[in-house]
Design a protein that fits this description.
about 475 residues; metal-binding; Glutathione synthetase; ligase; alpha+beta; 6-stranded mixed sheet; magnesium ion binding; binds adenosine-5'-diphosphate; binds magnesium ion; glutathione synthase activity
C-alpha cells in the first residue's frame, strides 16, 4: 500500500533557533490562555500542565471538511430517531446486554423508566461525530459520541494556538485557511436552551463529573461560558457518589440536590464502568433518569451511541426506517467503513474468519468509551481465538481499519525536548452537534463546531485526555 501524504501548511523544517524561541513562547501563551490538562502521573489540584498541541495546523482537504460539516445535522437527525426507536435498540442490543455487564445495566435503567412511564420526554444531545480521512478524497466515520463529547473548549482553543503561531511567523496570508470554530458557545447555548425549556429560572444545571477531572479546562470553560451568556444560571458539579448522598426526587419527580431543583443534567462522566463503580452510583444514575430533569444524554441516547448500534446501522437497509430522503441515506452510507457484528450467525462466523485471515485490516472494538479499549493488529487474532466459541464475542464489533494520510509536524508536549523533532502524524476530526427533541419532534438540530486531534502515525489510538494525542486545528487546502 502506498503511503498518502498531506503537505505542510508552510515550508518546514523551521530554522532551529527560531523554532526553539517560538516553542518557548507558545508554551507560555498556551498556559496563559487556559489551554491545559491535569497530569495523570503527577496529579495535583493546584497545577495544570499545558495540553499537548501541534505547533502548526495540519492540512485537511477543504471539500472533505465541508462535507463533514454539512452532514452533521443529518447524523444528528438519524441518531435522534435511533435513540427513540425502541424496537431497533432492543433488537440490536439483545445479545450484547447479556454479556456486557455495563451496557446491560444501562439497558436495565432504560427498561425501568419505560415501564414506569417517561417523566421527561425531551432529551438534550451534545454529540460529536469523529472521522478520519481514508484517502485524500473521502473520510470515514470512526464513531459517533452521544455522551460526554469533550473538546468544546479545546477545539476552538487549538485554532487560537495555531493562529497565534502563524501570526508570529508572519504568515498572515495563511490565516484565511483556518476555519472559524464556535464550538464552546454552540454547546453551551444548547445547555442554556434546555434550561429555558424546563421553565424554572431558579433551577440549576447539574454537571456529573468524575472523582478526579483531568480534562478540567475543557469542562470549566463550558461552565464559565455559560456564566458569560447568563450569569444568573445556577450550575453545580457533582459526582454520582455526591448525588447518592444529596439527591432525591420531589413528589412530582423533580430532581433535587439538597433544596435546589435541577433542570438539566449534563454528563461529563458515567460512560465507563469505573465511573459507576457501586450500587450507590447506579442508584444515582437511575434516580436521575427517573426525574423530570432534561438529561444530556438521556439513557436511550447513551445506548444509541454504542458501537453495536453503529455496526447495526451499517447493515443493508438499516438507514431507511430513520431517514426518508434517499440522498441523505446515500450520503450517510458513504461514510461507513466495513462494520461487522460477531453474533452467532453466518455473518458473524464470516467476520470471525476475516479477522483471523487478515487481522491488520481491522480494529476490534468493545462497547466502551474514552479511548484505550480497542484491539489492533496481531492481538486481534489472540482475542478472537479466545472469545469465538463463547457468548463474549457478541459484545464486540469488528471494524475495517482506516488508514489516514500522513502529515509531518511538530508535536509539543510537557517535558518534551526543545527544539522539537519533526514527526509523522495522523489526525482525527470531530464535528459537534446539538439536538433537542422528543420521540415525535426535533426542536433544535445544529452543527456547532469542530475539533482536530493528531497523534504520531505509529500510535493506534489518539485520545488527548488519555495521553496519546495532541490538539490540532485544520488548515484547509
Ligand atoms: P472511543 O469511544 O473509546 O473513543 P473509538 O472508536 O473512537 O472509541 O476508538 C478510539 C481510537 O481508536 C480512535 O480515536 C482512533 O484513533 C482509533 N480507531 C478507532 N477506530 C478506528 C478505525 N476504524 N481505523 C483506525 N483507527 C481507529
Ligand atoms: Mg467514543
Ligand atoms: Mg473516540
Amino acid at each position: 500500500m502506498s503511503v498518502k501524504r498531506l503537505p505542510s501548511c508552510i515550508p518546514i523544517p523551521l530554522d532551529e533557533k527560531e523554532l526553539k524561541e517560538l516553542v518557548s513562547k507558545t508554551k507560555d501563551w498556551v498556559v496563559m490562555h487556559g489551554i491545559g490538562i491535569r497530569s495523570k502521573t503527577a496529579f495535583s489540584e493546584d497545577s495544570i500542565n499545558f495540553a499537548p498541541y501541534l505547533l502548526l495546523p495540519s492540512t485537511f482537504p477543504r471539500k472533505e471538511f465541508e462535507r463533514a460539516v454539512e452532514i452533521q445535522t443529518t447524523l444528528n437527525e438519524l441518531m435522534h430517531r435511533v435513540a427513540h426507536n425502541q424496537e431497533f435498540l432492543k433488537e440490536t442490543l439483545k445479545d450484547t446486554i447479556q454479556v456486557d455487564e455495563f451496557t446491560g445495566s444501562l439497558y436495565k435503567i432504560w427498561e425501568t423508566v419505560l415501564n414506569e412511564g417517561v417523566t421527561q420526554p425531551l432529551s438534550l444531545a451534545l454529540v460529536r461525530n469523529d472521522l478520519m480521512l481514508d484517502s485524500m478524497h473521502s473520510w470515514k466515520q470512526v464513531e459517533f459520541n452521544t455522551i460526554a463529547a469533550g473538546f468544546g473548549w479545546l477545539g476552538p482553543a487549538s485554532l487560537a494556538i495555531n493562529r497565534f503561531v502563524l501570526e508570529e511567523l508572519e504568515h498572515f496570508d495563511k490565516l484565511q485557511n483556518l476555519p472559524e470554530n464556535n464550538a464552546l458557545t454552540g454547546m453551551t447555548m444548547g445547555l442554556l436552551e434546555a434550561w429555558k425549556i424546563y421553565g424554572d429560572s431558579k433551577a440549576a444545571i447539574l454537571v456529573i463529573v468524575e472523582d478526579v477531572t483531568y480534562n478540567i479546562c475543557d469542562q470549566r470553560f463550558h461552565e464559565f461560558e455559560l456564566k458569560r451568556l447568563n450569569p444568573r444560571v445556577k450550575l453545580m458539579r457533582k459526582t454520582l457518589t455526591d448525588v447518592h448522598m444529596e439527591g432525591s426526587l420531589s413528589e412530582n419527580n423533580e430532581l433535587m440536590i439538597g433544596n435546589t431543583v435541577v433542570s438539566v443534567v449534563y454528563y461529563r462522566s458515567a460512560y465507563t464502568p469505573e465511573q459507576i463503580p457501586t450500587k450507590k452510583e447506579w442508584g444515582s444514575r437511575l434516580l436521575i433518569e427517573r426525574s423530570q430533569a432534561i438529561k444530556c444524554p438521556s439513557i436511550q441516547y447513551h445506548l444509541a451511541g454504542t458501537k453495536k448500534v453503529q455496526q447495526a446501522l451499517a447493515k443493508p437497509g438499516a438507514l431507511e426506517p430513520f431517514l426518508s430522503d434517499p440522498n441523505k441515506i446515500a450520503a450517510v452510507r458513504d461514510i461507513f467503513t466495513g462494520l461487522f457484528g460477531l453474533d452467532f450467525d453466518e455473518a458473524g462466523d464470516q467476520a470471525i474468519q476475516m479477522a483471523l485471515d487478515d487481522p491488520e485490516r481491522f480494529v476490534l472494538k468493545p462497547q466502551r468509551e474514552g479511548g484505550g479499549n480497542n484491539i489492533y493488529g496481531s492481538e486481534i487474532r489472540d482475542a478472537i481465538m479466545q472469545m469465538k466459541d463463547t457468548k463474549e464475542r457478541t459484545a464486540w464489533i469488528l471494524m475495517e481499519r482506516i488508514n489516514p494520510p500522513i502529515s509531518t509536524g511538530y508535536m509539543i508536549r510537557p517535558g518534551g525536548q526543545n527544539p522539537p523533532q519533526l514527526a509523522e502524524m495522523i489526525s482525527e476530526l470531530g464535528i459537534f452537534g446539538v439536538v433537542i427533541g422528543d420521540s415525535q419532534k426535533i426542536m433544535v438540530n445544529r452543527q456547532v463546531g469542530h475539533m482536530l486531534r493528531t497523534k504520531v502515525s505509529t500510535a493506534d489510538e489518539g485520545g488527548v485526555a488519555a495521553g496519546y494525542g495532541a490538539l490540532d486545528s485544520p488548515y484547509l487546502i
